[in-house]
Amino acid sequence: MTITRDDALRQVPDGRLFVDGLWLEGSTGGERTHHDPATGEVVGKHQLAGSVEVDFAVKAARDALQRGELADPVRRRLLLSSLADAIVAAAGDLAALQTLEMGQPIRATRAGVALAAEWFRYFAGWADKLDGTVVPAGGAVLDYVVANPYGVVAAITPWNGPVVSIALKVAPAIAAGNAVVVKPSELAPFSALRFARICEEVVPPGVINVMPGGPGAGHALCAHPGVDKISFTGGSSAARAVARAAAENHTPVVLELGGKSASIVFADTEPTVVGKLGALLGTIQNSGQGCFLPTRLLVDRAIHDEVVAAVVATAEKARLGDPFEPSTTMGPLAGEAACERVLSVVEDARHRGDGVLLTGGQRAGGALAAGAFVQPTVFGDVDPASPLAQEEIFGPVLAVMPFDDEDEALAIANGTKYGLAGYVWTNDLRRAHRVAAALDAGYVSVNGMAALPPAAPFGGWRGSGHGVEGGRWGVHEFVRLKNVCVSLG
Ligand code: NAD
Fold first, then answer.
1. How does pLDDT run across 375-410, given as a tens digit for each residue?
2. DSSP three-state, residue 127
3. Is ligand 1 within 6 A of the CB of residue 256?
4. Which numbered atom of ligand 1 lies nearest the CA of 241?
5. 69 and which of 64, 193, 344, 400 could share a cystine (Cβ 3.0–4.6 Å)?
6. Edge-to-edge strands of the sheet including 229-233?
7. What is the tens place of the pLDDT at every residue in 76-108?
């Protein structure tokens, strides 16, 4: 079914915070007006959480745990399954609101919502399977290990995939028996508040609280003595602030941060793949606003010119436009500030001579001039040590670099502070595994793009953070172990 901008505007929540099963009237964090990044027009107003609401939400989560709302694993399984069903039922609204608030094309937001439901369904299955173990202790001793929830989890999420980001944290946290305070980014409040309406229908009060807010609310949560675990996704500088605040109470933290991931294209890549390289998705997909997207393209010199020509042609064919239009492949950036920031990064790179601008680099004009649209931008012959090749841009900017052999490719790929993802394109099985093993990153794809299946661990190394989301490893991030040693003698 086609969803229009008007449909989406009719679904915009009234902007109140959802705490303890109630919609709060007013907030100490103030109010914010949100603009549609595709048109610049006002979408609506919403409340921002302040420290008073943070206190209220942490207490509500603690009370829900004390009432035993999450004590029964079977009940948790059913609760997560109900959330998955309710997300599927509300998929149209959730996708439309994301497209409206952050400009991602509707086909992609629909896929994101379907993925979010999958994560809830997958972790429903874990809720009653977190068993303990008996440790061989010898003699008349029974020693056993029990998996316990932490208690209250703070889930701090980014704006660039708002519903799936909530699913990645909330689903495993609840499966493990924790109550959650979700603080979505202030830049994507409405899909999160629509998710809160789902929680109102299917979740007991206080189990999931949703309160969009800015850095102040994030800090109040991270420094709160009633928060037992923090799961944060965002950029490096906010992550430092999170880690500092968490250190005050020794609160454990999972940090899912940014990246500057490389696609390495070897000369033996399947020729049919070369022309339509998924590598370029690093620029077009979500307008380059994805943590694990391949924003560096390293190409074997033997096929360099051919690949670069194909990549530039694909960039120039991208359908920039209204993200509600089903044929649009690339929407705006998340807002005017992001647009200005990306254009200034491009300008600085040109000025310094970090590489050769092959296409793009401009704001889109004409009918798109009022929105935050930047043309897909490709720089060739980029200096691997330059800021253009080293810093996360979070925009539609691809840095292309040639290489002469596998060692050089790996040295460039591993030569940034980040270690989130890596992409290998080759027809040689041995090379594929060898390079995958040598990439200094937590998530590697061979001849394809990362897809975030819920059963696999996703997480960065080095400057891309620590801890994972997904699979048994992801649910264990929300579990703490207790050893019980019983003397039977
Ligand atoms: P951001 O760091 O600006 O904000 C992320 C979240 O942190 C938001 O909810 C924000 O309000 C909050 N925040 C900001 N300052 C804070 C503080 N001092 N204390 C506590 N919370 C604070 O990032 P963003 O612009 O929302 O998202 C883009 C960044 O997120 C990029 O770097 C991207 O690569 C990264 N990201 C990583 C992943 C991953 O899984 N590794 C996924 C998506 C995005």
1. 999 999 999 999 999 999 999 999 999 999 999 999
2. coil
3. yes
4. 18
5. 64
6. 22-23, 18-19, 208-210, 179-183, 152-156, 229-233, 253-256, 465-466
7. 999 999 999 999 999 999 999 999 999 999 999
